[in-house]
Amino acid sequence: FANTSDFVFGTGAYTVEFWIKPDSTPNGNMIFSANGSNGFVINMDSDSVNINKFGVGDVVSSTSMAPVGQWTHYAFVREGTGSNQTKIYVNGQLDKIGTDSNDWTVNSNWGLGARNSDAAFGVDGKLSNFRIVKGTAVYTSSFRPLTEPLTNITNTKLLCCNNSSTTGSTVTPGTITANSSPTAS
Predict the structure, then answer these.
(1) Cβ atoms of 86 and 80 closer than 8 Å
(2) What are the tens digits of pLDDT across the range 1-12?
(3) pTM of the prediction?
């Protein structure tokens, strides 16, 4: 993605959610990232999916990793300024509560499925229905994830990986450029 402030959360509320189906055990694969000092990253390790501060380390980590070959829904939700409470939901069930007091201000070199155009840190698997909602904690308690496509709700800044094109989207702040030959199905 081009540089955009639409993914800059500051200290406010946000929700980042998606479905993922790993094809192999991951190790440091970036699902979504701002590739800059202290940038916001959602990362997969062999034992967790986490919010990571680029170049610094984990902020909040799930208690487990999505099983290889199985679709799993993740939702990362920060309730906003003053709370700093961040929840990770796995398949709609509360998995972890942590503290994220970061002022997420990096707004460049955004990548989805890899670190910008660096396939070495890319996801070996499939992503579906990736949605970013800025300024809103969409989920505040356990829920049942939808099994139909996500929709554009108030404050949605990105909704992609939801059609048969690698760069197709319902909501985007700009052009999506495909790198490293991803495929859509």
Answers:
(1) no
(2) 777 888 888 889
(3) 0.89
